[in-house]
Design goal:
The chain is of the alpha+beta class. Helix content is 18%, strand content 39%.
Length: 240
């Protein structure tokens, strides 16, 4: 199994790791990684690896492979290190940090719009959630104000783990209708905003998040689009 360092510390920007395999599709597989793979609606990380005498390889995206593998996809034409090489991984931190801020903001969006989520997407430019929402909200400005007030409360964001069985016995924790929580290893990661005495949000999630909601910054609710008979897509943007 690949050691997923981003789960232990989402702020870790670099690490040394050994190249242990190359997939049939050309993805580089290391024994450990700080690169988050495209999953749960969050875009995969980009960055570079380096080794030897100033040799580098640009990583254009990161995707999930089978059996817990993380595939770091090189840009076309890049030189690749030999198997067994100890490399330095370096994240595109500016992009990753925006993913973290946006992902946490979308959790709060699901609080101010307490409806089942049918889909979502997170990029460095914008994010969105699709809701089981037959009618559009009457007052978008009020929702935006409520969202930013939650952000400004500066609540801590933390993680914990429960068993697959515990999650099955508490189905209300799952807000997403179309994306199942990451299960199958016997335990499920929960992301909590707030504390046990004042929990703002608690749901299964394998993505990367900021430590405190104040790091998100001010957000703007963008377009609210109709996507099907009962679905509305709500876009979220950084204010600057």
């Amino acid at each position: 199994m690949v050691e997923l360092l981003f789960r232990k510390d989402a702020y870790l920007r670099s690490t040394k790791a050994k190249l242990i395999d190359i997939s049939d599709t050309g993805g580089l597989i290391f024994d450990r990684t700080v690169f988050y793979p495209n999953s749960g609606g969050q875009a995969g990380d980009t960055g570079q690896i380096s080794w030897g005498n100033e040799q580098t390889c640009h990583i254009e995206t990161t995707v999930k492979g089978s059996h817990g593998k993380v595939l770091m996809i090189p840009a076309d034409g890049e030189n690749l290190p030999p198997l067994g090489t100890l490399c330095q991984q370096e994240l595109n931190w500016k992009q990753r940090y925006r993913h973290m801020r946006m992902h946490t903001a979308l959790h709060l969006l699901s609080v101010v719009i307490p409806l089942p989520v049918t889909g979502g997407q997170i990029t460095a430019e914008k994010g969105r959630l699709d809701f089981d929402m037959p009618e559009a909200p009457e007052n978008r400005e009020a929702l935006e104000k409520e969202l930013n007030e939650l952000i400004e409360r500066d609540n801590f964001v933390s993680t914990s783990w429960i068993s697959d069985e515990d999650l099955e016995q508490n189905p209300s924790l799952v807000k997403t209708m179309s994306v199942k929580p990451p299960m199958g290893t016997g335990k499920v990661r929960l992301v909590r905003i707030g504390d046990q005495n004042n929990t703002i949000d608690l749901q299964p999630c394998g993505g990367t998040h900021v430590k405190k909601t104040s790091e998100i910054g001010k957000m703007v609710i963008g377009k609210i689009e109709k996507k099907g008979r009962q679905n509305r897509r709500v876009s979220l943007l950084f204010s600057s």
